Amino acid sequence: MSRPLARFFSSSSRSLSLLGPIPSSSSSCSNPSKSASVKLAPLRYHIFKEPLPYPVGLKLQNDIIDKRLEAKAKDPMGSRGIGDVVLLLEHTPTYTTGRRDNSPNPNELHPEEKKVQNVGAEFYITKRGGQVTYHGPGQLVGYPILDLNVMETSTRCYVEYLQRMLGDYVRQTSGLGETITAPHPDGHVGVFSSPTEKVSSIGIHLRHRITSHGFAMNITPEPIKWFDLVMACGLADVHAISLHDLITRSAISNGVIPTLPSVANVAEDLVPKFGELFGREIISLHDEGGEGAVEEVMQIRELVKKAEEEAKEENAKSGGWATEPDLSKRG
């Protein structure tokens, strides 16, 4: 049975599966804000109001990187990270998996795909590393598109920085403190509330040292039923949990009424933390300050605008999306 595949980057790009332990290194990751030896341009961000179908978000990342590489080819020394941008969004219900050496025939159903046939979510095989995961409403997805060369940051340290930021945020917001671990006690990348509960995942892709993909954090319980249908990230003994679940758990133990943030609230909370993390001014993609008139930034704005229009049109055509899996039609 054939079906469209979400194609990722070309074979010349580097794909990393970061669902297991981070590769060891003799060097330590110091404060990321002190990594670069030159003053970098402001880091830009954009928060999407409309959930993006996965192919729209995938194409947007590819297109932004294409424009960034074109700009670097014209002026290799002039970038200073002008096109660095963090995209924060939700996807419509989608399962994705990476392409591995032992991946099944692309014209046959993936083993995990068989579990979720007709439940109301799309399934895409991508060029990223890693195994099956879920994206959908109630989950915040972050796609930082950053030039690690101009940031003078190693891949390993970049992942550690993201993991540190997300772990600190969950510790603070949930009120569970050091019971939140990042990474897993066994070294698996992500944010865990116990050895068997995962609230946030990290998986990146590199193309000529420019990052894509990034992280996902379950904010509301809505994604959990979808996760329960598959073996996410290949971790049989780990199940998904949401930030709301953790906040409620902490509130009950302390005898208080929980305050539960929306996905948009969490996105807004994380924006300044990216600036603090990398020691850079952080401004809206549409802010005319900083390097606002630079062609590279203007091109990214146009690509984001186009993606938003496509998402709005596709979501209108579909009549909305399922809020939970439809098990009555499960294959």
Automatic annotation (TrEMBL):
Gene3D superfamilies for this protein: Bira Bifunctional Protein, Domain 2
Xref: Pfam families: LplA-B_cat
A Gene Ontology biological process term: protein lipoylation
Enzyme class: transferase
InterPro entries (UniProt xref): aa-tRNA-synth_II/BPL/LPL (IPR045864), BPL_LPL_catalytic (IPR004143), Octanoyltransferase (IPR000544), Octanoyltransferase_CS (IPR020605)
Keyword DNA-binding: no
Annotated pathway: Protein modification; protein lipoylation via endogenous pathway; protein N(6)-(lipoyl)lysine from octanoyl-[acyl-carrier-protein]: step 1/2
EC number(s) from the headed UniProt entry: 2.3.1.181
Molecular function GO terms recorded: lipoyl(octanoyl) transferase activity
UniProt keyword Isomerase present: no
Keyword annotations: Acyltransferase, Transferase
Family that this chain belongs to: Belongs to the LipB family.
Cited NCBIfam families: lipB
Protein name: lipoyl(octanoyl) transferase
Organism encoding this protein: Kwoniella shandongensis
